[in-house]
């Protein structure tokens, strides 16, 4: 019932917006986007963090703030304009969109070579479904589609795509039909700029590792298709510009190198009009708990021209043990972390008496000496050592239940480390999602976020006297 009400509301909005002039719809969307920028601080902060990752010191603070504000306005304008354009005749819509680089795509298709379009959430990207049939209607056109949760809306969207002449392949049903279409000389468009989760390949995007779908590269290698980046920029009120840029022919390119090249081309498109991209998507997030890249199905890939030290660092804080023996036993886990993330910048928080020991480990980038009574708030990308133990099963452990739980048994389901990891996970994971995989932790939440005060000092372990 709720789904049907949402569908009716969408159809009513479609009819209302369709009755208004396009320029008025565009201006109304800009106003609503500005209100969203004012009233949605969480999305505003997410967009600002993403812009900071992408441009860093290349742009001033005022420029980055303007990009975020203009993004909300452009997104609102393009969202409402897309609804209006959906109800307009195709010939009228095509007159609003200028094109650039279509000659090369025509040359490829007429030579019998299939084309894979690497699309991005740039400008009014929904226009691709209407404009591509106008320019390339002589070949089969398709896109990979993720089924909507609302079955009424899903049926309506499928009908609209079919009206424009675009075939839809459901992602959950595999890609055999897509491969068959490409081998017949067709064209397929794939949105390639969103986080791909555990199934993605970790490769640089604006200099920071991001999980990226390898599907465009995979289809190119399987079918011999040409890889072409396509973008749709906003050129003014009710005007757009569609740009095609081939990746170039390199027969020895692997799926991984094609995926990295896709990221490079999309990054170049974004630099041309940064306010047009979808900054409110958490592109660089690291899902819990498999944040070590070696644990992912497809691993990672760095282009030949990029070294690990060229990447933006993924900062990790590890709370070292108070015991020399436990610290030494933990060092293989630190080495495994460094191997699992070449972009890792590892900082160890250790007592003064063990700081020199940790400094001898080449995988450790910095050692912070913990003061006995006070630990400053630290900005890190992942969780402290006892949570790493629970997540990776990598740390060795002792048998004394009274010892520091950060070095107890990762493999023991009754250990304090695992209990604390399960209790802390929801709170810290929410914090990590809110800040692109970056969590803010202090000593009072190293053991349990439910505690409002630092844990009380434990009595000295007496198990050594009993041995």
Question: How does this structure look, described?
Answer:
This protein is of the alpha/beta class and 467 residues long. The chain folds into two domains: 2-276, no CATH class; 313-466, no CATH class. The protein has 16 helices and 14 strands. The chain has helices spanning 2-18, 22-39, 41-55, 61-86, 90-94, 102-110, 128-136, 151-164, 176-183, 215-223, 255-272, 324-340, 355-359, 385-392, 416-434, 463-466; strands at 97-100, 115-119, 141-145, 166-170, 187-191, 201-205, 208-212, 226-236, 239-246, 314-319, 344-351, 366-370, 378-380, 439-441. A seven-stranded mixed beta sheet has the order 1-9-8-2-5-3-4. It is globular.
Which terms summarize this structure?
467 residues; alpha/beta; 7-stranded mixed sheet; 3-stranded parallel sheet; 16 helices; 14 strands
Strand residues, percent: 15-25%
Number of domains: 2
Mean pLDDT: 79
**How helix-rich are the residues, as a percent range?**
40-55%
